[in-house]
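I hope you will forgive my troubling you with a question about protein structure. Could you please explain, in whatever detail you think fit, how the structure tokens follow from the sequence? Thank you for your consideration; the sequence and its tokens are set out here.
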Amino acid sequence: MELKKEFEDIIAGMPGLEADDMLRAIRELPPVVSVRVNTGKGASVPNGSDAVPWCPEGFYLPERRQFTFDPFFHGGRYYVQDASSMFIFHVLRQLCTRPVRYLDLCAAPGGKTTAALSALPADSLIVANEIVPQRARVLADNVMRWGQANCIVTGNAPRDLGRLNGYFDVIAADVPCSGEGMFRKEPEAVAQWSPALVAECAERQRSIVADIWPALRPGGLFIYSTCTFNRQENEEMILHIMKTYGAEPVAVPTSPEWHIHGAIGADLPCYRFLPHLVRGEGLFMCALRKPDSGERTAFSPRKTKAQAEPVPKEVKQWLCGDFTYQAAGDSIIAVPAPLATHTDYLRGLLRALSAGIQVAEKKGKGYIPTHSLALARELNRSEFSTFEADYRTAIAYLRGEAINVSADRGYVLITHRGAPLGFANNLGNRANNLYPKPLRIISNNTPATAPAVL
């Protein structure tokens, strides 16, 4: 890989950094592959796996697999995520010991959001936001696969969210950056890089922080991260936040065996993941606490809108647990009862793409189960007939093809090795495949066996 001289000069000029070793790692070492399992769906790290040190739910793969052809991938049993980015799991486990209102500001494609869903205490409310519409749709799909009900996906500008004065206990901002840490994975990032881009990104980062800072409650945590190496977008940005907003950096316990590099050119508790030291791509992260004035801003809840018709009893039986059901157009969504007021409040103020679990869609005079319901952790499987698909049948289903379903008539849950994939409507002589068209596998090059991930 040919790196630009200006970039090499920046790395060489950073004190305390083994520049030659780092540049050699960027040029010559291949990117590593790692996944994080969804323990809420019964997945676990396989015995004997090469574990990610800072994330007990993550492990390395010896090589990249054809994840597209793994039914477990589509069923949300794991998420393919760079090991360095899994550090957010450790940070949240260390710093958040009780339920919080959490904002993932720049959340697409969803790796850090799903990590937060797994790491944060039960009854936390997660708002995952992405302003770019296409990326927001991918985010919503990945959150749906993860299957937790305590998440709202929104598509708002930081300034819109900033109007939620003091609402969030924790805000994580994985801000848009110059992408130096992704050079090994994304060759186009090398071509696009320039000192001017670094300066442009730093200015944008300052603007994003200014827009969102009011939404963080006094005493709340702000977790700033990038996937780049230069100090301008990292340590200098942390110093800017401290000077401008009076924030205090917060140390996170780590192990020396993890080989995480500290701050460069500043006495700060920052955490740098460098490719010659760790098995992962470039990452910078620092947690800061907003000054606590002792004041608390109470949110003003909006009353839940009256539904056109009551939710049928059988629909409520499709989920296990304590849920509040709300109308959303022709759909019914279910949100955890303790979070219902907050969910309704945010849906009234923000551009919500999804909230909780979309349980049912109106069809004629009744309702049909949705794909979101099939992937929900709280799905009440006893309410549906189940058809266990072998590997080739599961792939055919995920392509949207017609499959033979030997089950009772009606809506049938399609599973593979016990893991739900979606619904089909068994009419007796045939079954209508209900797998959503936007999620279907397009490629026809099916391997003989499933990729060995879990």
